[in-house]
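Handout, section 4.2: multi-component inputs.
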Amino acid sequence: RSGEMATKLTQLIDNEVFWAYATYTTIVLLKMMLMSLITAYFRITRKAFANPEDTASFGKGESAKKYLRTDADVERVRRGHLNDLENIVPFLGIGLLYALSGPELSTALLHFRIFAGARILHTFAYLIPLPQPSRGLSWAAGYVVTILMAYKVLKTTLYL
Amino acid sequence: RSGEMATKLTQLIDNEVFWAYATYTTIVLLKMMLMSLITAYFRITRKAFANPEDTASFGKGESAKKYLRTDADVERVRRGHLNDLENIVPFLGIGLLYALSGPELSTALLHFRIFAGARILHTFAYLIPLPQPSRGLSWAAGYVVTILMAYKVLKTTLYL
Amino acid sequence: RSGEMATKLTQLIDNEVFWAYATYTTIVLLKMMLMSLITAYFRITRKAFANPEDTASFGKGESAKKYLRTDADVERVRRGHLNDLENIVPFLGIGLLYALSGPELSTALLHFRIFAGARILHTFAYLIPLPQPSRGLSWAAGYVVTILMAYKVLKTTLYL
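Output:
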């Protein structure tokens, strides 16, 4: 019974723009989730932790306490992760509303592809790191695409 | 073909509450995105950066290294930005589900307007800054509205 | 008129998987919002604030300035809050797309319940704190469930 309903809903949302949104949103969210693993990798290899309970395996007292510290590489990944949150959250919301606002498929795909590509480039630019303005430009590309989608949403749906 | 489908989906979601949600969500997300530009403005004017590659244009070695520092104004904008994330993410999710839970249009508009107004006031209160409890009250208004919408969602849809 | 439309839309999304998603998403977002209150509680009881205007009630000048400081308990809650953002934002997006991708109700419920349970356990493990690997395992459970849902979304909808 639930299977039927689900099928019906799926047919209903049998909309190529919506599924393009689904694909690119899933990709950028998975990319963002990867930052957690990279942070964990650097915390373990650099032995730089934020919580006393995380250093318990290194012994007790002073011997473990020295691993409660910040590390430049860990902080770099964390800044990249926060930048992802700041930029992917707007895409999540505005992109969904944009996909439902009836854009042309080719136009929508162009927006989604530029956004996803820009965020992937941004991560490489941040983590390698590449010299500026690599990171700045990749950030700006994703930002501008989101603004353009927001404009389309407001033009279509403005209801104050 | 895609155009037709998109039109069909748009008609389907020809729901005033949904489009009110779309409008106010886009507004608060754009407001949140503005925090990135304000952070960049303060980083550049206060010369306070987080990444060595961002200071490369100020020369090499020690002359550039002194710009790798925190600045009170930059940190203030960043706290405002994080507070936006912490409060707008719940609105994004709970607001969407609330819009789909069949509220009265006038009630829904009241919730969305208070939330958007509260977050805009919160930003002014944080950045000027205004004396407390300005920031506290504007934060609380958005928080309470989100809780009220969550209650309506759970009352309508509770499915554990 | 709006009421009718809303009813129609509600019937349309008369999908058990979708409402299960709505319920669990609302629960985890409310849980995340609770972190703001816990942060405020520790800031007030530990007298550890981030903004000068927050300490104005303690007097002027040096007597208030000493409360502008970080506190281990406050920072711990803030790390838990940020970890929520990093993990609940992917669930918000991927979970919605997963719910619309036509999964079996029982399978979907299993995913949503494990995710919500894992995030609640994670909060207890972080705030008490429990010895590791409690926090690590609860984090990993939510992470893996989100990856599995993303895989189902991409398998159903891949549209590059």
